[in-house]
Design a protein that fits this description.
Elements (H helix, E strand, L loop, with lengths): L1 H6 L53 H6 L27 H7 L17 H9 L3 H14 L2 H6 L1 H14 L5 H14 L3 H14 L4 H13 L3 H14 L4 H13 L3 H9 L6 H17 L3 H14 L4 H13 L3 H14 L4 H14 L3 H18 L5 H14 L3 H14 L5 H14 L3 H14 L5 H14 L3 H14 L4 H13 L3 H14 L4 H10 L5 H14 L4 H12 L8 H14 L4 H14 L3 H14 L5 H6 L7 H18 L1 H11 L2 H15 L42 H8 L6 H9 L7
Helix pairs in contact: 5-7, 5-8, 7-8, 8-9, 9-10, 10-11, 11-12, 12-13, 12-14, 13-14, 14-15, 15-16, 16-17, 16-18, 17-18, 18-19, 18-20, 19-20, 20-21, 20-22, 21-22, 22-23, 23-24, 24-25, 24-26, 25-26, 26-27, 26-28, 27-28, 28-29, 28-30, 29-30, 29-37, 30-31, 30-32, 31-32, 32-33, 32-35
Length: about 775
């Protein structure tokens, strides 16, 4: 029955769910943190393959009907959450629901499955007539036009008043929502808050209004307001998927995991076809919290109860891979392909997992070729070219250049004309790995000729890297200069221009390029971060001044906060301060978890202070869940594209342990100097001055300059220490910093690794 209503939701109506069992009948394992799983789902041990007749979803329709939602109902007895109350809505916390006095249990349904007809009424309230839709669409387009932006808020208000006059009252909430968004972009947050309230009052059953309102308050740091808004939204839109997901993530961010689990428990009587995404988020929440056994059990439930949803298989596969079980991840992906042979992401996951799970090269190549031949027959035609593209890269990594070329040719044959440039780009990178520079250059020229205008700058960037690798710096500069003119909106070209000058040891030119880049892309955190690093040659106080400016422009850039931490972690710095570095790295990980360097710098800090193993393990868990994908230190630690996040962390830990052992005397001298009251007060004052940016201070203000800081006490280093300077510690690896300053004296493979990093060509 569940399978029928999920696949043919518009053709029939789902029966109401059974009444909830008394609390005394709840399973013992649900009395607390865990979900209550049905007996047939059982556990999912990582050491065993999936059971059930060769398939993890070998249940008949009757068994599927008997499936129940995972439940965290044990906390009900503690007064944390009540049973679902659709008339009063769903509460993020238990006490709020009881105060409102809801009625009996039962879920909300989509408009086509609601036996009471409430969903139909709600859908009609949000619908618009063709005329109203046309008027509203014209208003929305005009409001976002450049003309409206130039004329200002008064003109926009007049435009909204005219639109409100032409539209029926039932659609007015949409106009208020548009005006609230405009007010938020203009930083008129009080006005935006007023407009959001009007929108939610006019149409309380519109989840979009509640979501946008909550998003603004969360961005402003008003987390309690955000929680109240989400609770009100769930009261008027019970069990709405987007509101439930937002509520769970908000509670997780606030550290309220018990409340998040209680919110999940309210889904126990909602049909799985309406709640699987939210339950899937619950599984991911448990994984992020380090509760791998519980996450595995919830995934097992979903694979049994909702095997027809591809994202369930995909996330279960990724979960096992993050846990370090590639064989089990491969089994899950293969089982998923038996259920959903046309689901593309699983085909690509299997290809990557084969490389991790099969150490024998001959066996790997044979299995990959068989997998690709099978995938071509099942996968969507639009994805066939990607499959051949991935196969070409596998062949290249295993030393089969001829096979790789053949796969690229097949990829071109199955590819749309506007995407062929990606295949030429991938082929050029493969030829480069075999030092075939002329072939690589010819393929890049072909890619440039066939690429659309919007992507031409990416190809030119790749060409400039090839010229730099071959030693023709002037040709690389010329290409990037041309790319900056033709694609001013592409910030990556400007960043590559700065990095080119840094690798060429032309610091003054790099500074000039960075400042010019920020004139065009002032809101790009990576450009500010590289400028902060370049200012090291001018002294720490110049770095702090740029750091302050950057916080004014991009206060939520993890790269900028990481550079602030690096200033405080440099043992030669006048602002060496481990406590400030700790605070800055917390911000960096919170704002940009994809930036891997923040996690590696955090590891360095923990090694310096001798952090407990539990804290280090928690940092590892955060990093594994975030799955960072870029950063200079991160790429340096990721020697091959096949390394998982856990393996990269192991490599980075070994690198840091080796370097801290070598330079321990420098760090010990810095820690001893930082303990002196005079140095500590001076360093703290400098860091505090930089932090004024977060409270409205400005590096460009006309206020009188602060008095010049007193010279810090000298750093007492052992006489036997090899020559070392502040530039060696601008990042966490002395060896990497020196390699960047001596690029011309490195071998071809080392230069290629520094120029290209871990940047992959992906289809």
């Amino acid at each position: 029955h569940v399978m029928k209503t999920s696949r043919f939701c518009g053709r029939g109506r789902a029966a109401p769910p059974p009444p909830p069992p008394p609390l005394s009948h709840m399973p013992q394992q649900a009395q607390g943190r865990e979900y209550a799983l049905p007996p047939q789902c059982g556990g999912w041990p990582p050491s065993a393959a999936l059971q059930g007749g060769g398939s993890c979803c070998g249940l008949d329709a009757a068994a599927m009907q008997r499936q129940q939602m995972p439940s965290a109902a044990g906390s009900m007895g503690a007064g944390r959450v009540g049973v679902p109350m659709p008339q009063a809505g769903v509460a993020l916390r238990s006490g709020e629901m009881g105060a409102r006095g809801g009625a009996g249990p039962g879920p909300s349904y989509c408009s086509s499955c609601d036996p009471s007809g409430r969903g139909d009424a709600r859908g009609k309230d949000l619908a618009m007539s063709p005329r109203s839709r046309a008027v509203y669409k014209d208003f929305s387009h005009t409001l976002r036009s450049k003309e409206t932006q130039v004329r200002g808020a008064r003109y926009a208000q007049q435009l909204a008043e005219r639109c409100l006059h032409d539209l029926p009252e039932a659609v007015h909430w949409r106009v208020h929502l548009e005006m609230a968004d405009l007010a938020k972009r203009e930083k008129s947050f009080g006005r935006a808050r007023q407009l959001y309230r009007m929108a939610t009052q006019l149409q309380p059953t519109a989840p979009q209004a509640w979501l946008e309102f909550a998003k603004m308050e969360e961005e402003r740091g008003h987390f309690s307001r955000c929680e109240k808004i989400l609770t009100l939204g769930l009261r008027h839109c019970p069990y709405h998927e987007a509101l439930m997901l937002k509520g769970i993530k908000h509670l997780e961010r606030m550290g309220e995991l018990r409340a998040a689990r209680s919110l999940l428990s309210q889904l126990q009587y909602v049909p799985v076809n309406q709640s699987w995404r939210t339950v899937l988020e619950g599984a991911l929440l448990e994984a992020r919290a380090g509760e791998t056994a519980m996450a595995r059990r919830v995934f097992k439930f979903l694979l049994h109860a909702a095997p027809w949803y591809g994202p369930v298989w995909f996330e279960a596969c990724r979960f096992e891979q993050r846990c370090g079980h590639p064989q089990e991840a491969l089994r899950v992906a293969e089982e998923g392909l038996k259920q959903l042979p046309r689901y593309g992401p699983l085909w690509f996951s299997v290809m990557r997992l084969l490389e991790c799970a099969l150490p024998n090269r001959h066996e790997l190549v044979h299995a990959t070729r068989a997998h690709v031949e099978r995938g071509v027959r099942h996968i969507s035609k639009d994805l066939v070219w990607k499959l051949w593209f991935e196969a070409a890269q596998v062949e290249e990594r295993n030393g089969n250049l001829a096979r790789s070329r053949s796969a690229y040719v097949k990829s071109v044959g199955a590819c749309a004309p506007n995407l062929r440039w990606k295949v030429w780009l991938g082929g050029a990178r493969s030829e480069l790995s075999y030092s075939r520079f002329d072939v690589s250059q010819a393929l890049l020229e072909r890619a440039l000729a066939e690429s659309p205008p919007k992507t031409r700058a990416i190809v030119m960037l790749e060409q400039s890297r090839l010229y730099e690798l071959r030693g023709d710096i002037e040709a690389a500069r010329g290409l990037l200069r041309s790319a900056r003119k033709s694609a001013r909106s592409e910030w990556k070209v400007f960043l590559e221009s700065v990095l080119l000058e840094m690798r060429s040891e032309a610091t003054s030119r790099a500074l000039r390029e960075a400042r010019r880049a920020l004139e065009v892309h002032r809101g790009t955190g990576r450009l500010w971060a590289v400028l902060i690093q370049l200012e090291q040659a001018s002294g720490v106080h110049h770095q702090l001044r740029v750091f302050q400016q950057a916080l004014l422009e991009v206060p939520k850039s993890g790269e900028v906060w990481c550079e602030g931490a690096r200033i405080c972690l440099n043992p030669f710095s006048d602002c060496f301060n481990l406590e400030a570095a700790h605070n800055f790295l917390d911000f960096a990980i919170e704002f940009t978890p994809q930036y891997g360097d923040s996690f590696i710098e955090y590891l360095r800090l923990m090694m310096l202070v001798g952090a407990p193993d539990a804290d280090v393990e928690r940092l590892w868990q955060l990093c594994i869940n975030a799955e960072p994908n870029y950063g200079t230190l991160w790429f340096h630690s990721k020697r091959t594209v096949l390394l998982t996040t856990r393996q990269v962390l192991e490599s980075a830990t070994e690198l840091l342990r080796r370097e801290l052992s070598e330079w321990r005397s420098v760090y010990d001298a810095a820690i001893a100097r930082a303990a002196r009251p005079d140095f500590r007060s001076t360093a703290l004052a400098a860091v505090t001055a930089a932090m004024l940016a977060r409270t409205g201070g400005s590096a460009d203000s006309d206020a009188p300059a602060a008095p010049a800081p007193l010279p810090p006490p000298p750093l007492n280093l052992p006489a036997s220490l090899p020559p070392v300077e502040a530039a060696d510690f601008v990042t966490g690896s002395v060896a990497l910093n020196r390699m960047h300053r001596q690029l011309g004296r490195l071998g071809l493979e080392e230069r290629r690794a520094l120029i290209y990093g871990g940047d992959m060509i992906v289809p």
